Structures are given as structure tokens and as C-alpha cells.
């Protein structure tokens, strides 16, 4: 959350002619000691910030409250504005402040800073039952820089079968999906995703990225993730669920559940996706109190076998 605080402090300085550590502490609900550390950190990072001592003293931005923040380098500006993007854990208020602050940046930085806020998406859901801990891929920064600058890259990549290839791609955005990172890019074969931990080399070119006018990273990733989920769980089962069981199904099945309309007996039609008939029957066996599977017949047969086995063992 420190990045949140630094951005909030920077915006306070942008709004006011001068602030004291006590005022910063009150605004951000932190100790004065923490506020002083944050002010010092901003000054050391290159923000044109200075302090005056004594009565009436405090912290000011060089050039007054409407400075263009020209003490920031292009890289620092991009880094700061990543906090405003969808991948950030920043609060909505801080993100709103950042979007206002971008208007104070000098023109050469503004485009890159605004682009940085839309280069990443975070999808906290993991694929399947993966428990792998997140690990930052070595070439993530190089790819993110290419996305922000809007340049094509020659990409070295190892596919799932171990074959290494070289290709030129148009980087469109980066997604953090659970423990994994993905590059969304346009290629000669259309839109593709690349797992960044399989990227072996990144060689930026001077050629600009061809970015569709209507491209939105978050929307594109939802389409990609939905398609992957459908491929991983191709089987669809039709069922009826009691109204009080819908919550249980949502908890257990997540996006694999589609809820339809009510039936004459008050139950609700649902469609449930699964990997195969046997696996899906095993998942649904524990929901028998709320769910009645209508089909396919193979799922019902597996449920019957599970029920008979339970009766034989526990009767």
C-alpha cells in the first residue's frame, strides 16, 4: 500500500501550496513518522520537492502547487501511473487522484503515463486447482516497456512441448493470472497469448504496434479466459436446483455455472460445465440435497454408481 500513499501525498502537494507532515498524517490516517518517511522518499525519487523549517514551514513542490512535475523521468512517470491501472490494488480514490495528476505531467511523458495505466490486468482466479506461488518472470519488465512504448518485438518462446521458436509480435497488454503472467499480442495468425515464463528473449524493434481501435485489454482477457475455461471443461450437464442451493453451486462451481429461469415446481434450471462425466458426477454427488441432474445420461449413471457405493459402504 506504500505506492498508494506516495501517490496520495503527491496529489496533496499538487492540490495545495504547502503541506506539513501532520496534515499528511491526518489525511492518510498514518503516523507523522510514516508521513515524513513518505515525503522524504518522494524527494529522493526525483520529485521536485523541498521542505522549509520553522513556524509556517512545510513541504512544497518547486515552482508552486501547479508545477508540471518535470523532475520525474519518463520511466518514473510510467512507474507511478501503473498504480492507476486495473492491475493495481490502489483504492478508487487514489486511482482517481492519479488520473487527475496525469494532466500536470509534461506532454512528452503524458502519453506514456496514460498508456501505463492500461497495460496490465489482474485476474486473481487460478486455472484449475493450481497452488503454485506467484513468481515474477525475468523478462516481464522488457515486455511491459514494449507494450507502453507501442513497439513490436522479436520474441523467443518455448511452447508446452519444449520447441523453441522466434516470431515478431505486436504486444497489446500483460495479464497477471493467479501465479502466472501472460502477454496478449497480435500476430500474423491473429490474437495470441504467451506465458511470459516461457519467453526466452525480447528484442524490441522500431516498428509500431498495430493496435485495433476498439481493443480493450480487460475485455479481451475475459474472452480468452472464458474460451480456455470452456476447453478445460467441455462437458455440459443440465440440472434443476432448489433456490436455496444456488448459493452453494456458485461457491463450488464459480464460472462453470449458468443459471436459467424458474420451473413450474419452483426450482431453477442450471447448466453446469465439467471436465468429463465421471469427474462432474463426483462433484455433484455432494450437492444431491439441492440438485437433480437431468442429463446427460452418463452423468446420471455415474451418480447412481456413487450412490450405490455409498450405501454399500455406510448402510
From TrEMBL:
Molecular-function GO term, any one: DNA binding
Domain of life: Bacteria
Annotated SUPFAM superfamilies: Winged helix' DNA-binding domain
Keyword flag DNA-binding: yes
Keywords linked to the UniProt accession: DNA-binding, Transcription, Transcription regulation
Domain HTH deoR-type: 2-67
Keyword DNA-binding: yes
InterPro entries named among the record's database cross-references: CBASS_pafABC_assoc_protein, DeoR_HTH, HTH_11, PafC-like, Tscrpt_reg_HTH_DeoR_CS, WCX_dom, WH-like_DNA-bd_sf, WH_DNA-bd_sf
Pfam families: HTH_11, WCX, WYL
Transmembrane segments: none
Name of this protein: Transcriptional regulator
Species: Cellulomonas xylanilytica
The organism's taxonomic lineage, starting at the top: Bacteria, Bacillati, Actinomycetota, Actinomycetes, Micrococcales
Amino acid at each position: 500500500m506504500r505506492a498508494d500513499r506516495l501517490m496520495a501525498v503527491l496529489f496533496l502537494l499538487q492540490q495545495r501550496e504547502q503541506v506539513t507532515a501532520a496534515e499528511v498524517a491526518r489525511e492518510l490516517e498514518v503516523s507523522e513518522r510514516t508521513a515524513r518517511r513518505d515525503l522524504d522518499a518522494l524527494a529522493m525519487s526525483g520529485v521536485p520537492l523541498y521542505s522549509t523549517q520553522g513556524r509556517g514551514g512545510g513541504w512544497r513542490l518547486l515552482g508552486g502547487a501547479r508545477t508540471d512535475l518535470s523532475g520525474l523521468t519518463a520511466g518514473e512517470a510510467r512507474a507511478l501511473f501503473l498504480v492507476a491501472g486495473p492491475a493495481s490494488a490502489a483504492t478508487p480514490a487514489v486511482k482517481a487522484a492519479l488520473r487527475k495528476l496525469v494532466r500536470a505531467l509534461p506532454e512528452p511523458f503524458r502519453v506514456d503515463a496514460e498508456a501505463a495505466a492500461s497495460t496490465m490486468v489482474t485476474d486473481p482466479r487460478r486455472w484449475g486447482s493450481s497452488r503454485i506461488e506467484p513468481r515474477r518472470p525475468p523478462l516481464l519488465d522488457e515486455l511491459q516497456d514494449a507494450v507502453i512504448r507501442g513497439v513490436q518485438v522479436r520474441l523467443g518462446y518455448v511452447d508446452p512441448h519444449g520447441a523453441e521458436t522466434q516470431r515478431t509480435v505486436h504486444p497489446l497488454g500483460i495479464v497477471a493470472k493467479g501465479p502466472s503472467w501472460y502477454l496478449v499480442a497480435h500476430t500474423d495468425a491473429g490474437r495470441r497469448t504467451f506465458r511470459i515464463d516461457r519467453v526466452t528473449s525480447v528484442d524490441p524493434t522500431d516498428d509500431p504496434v498495430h493496435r485495433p481501435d476498439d481493443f480493450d485489454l480487460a475485455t479481451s482477457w475475459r474472452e480468452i479466459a472464458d474460451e480456455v475455461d470452456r476447453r478445460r471443461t467441455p462437458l455440459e450437464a443440465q440440472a434443476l436446483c432448489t433456490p436455496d442451493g444456488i448459493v452453494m453451486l456458485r461457491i463450488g462451481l464459480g464460472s462453470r455455472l449458468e443459471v436459467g429461469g424458474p420451473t413450474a415446481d419452483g426450482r431453477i434450471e442450471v447448466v453446469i460445465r465439467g471436465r468429463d462425466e465421471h469427474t462432474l458426477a463426483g462433484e455433484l454427488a455432494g450437492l444431491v440435497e439441492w440438485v437433480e441432474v437431468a442429463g446427460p445420461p452418463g452423468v446420471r449413471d455415474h451418480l447412481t454408481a456413487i450412490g450405490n457405493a455409498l450405501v454399500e459402504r455406510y448402510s
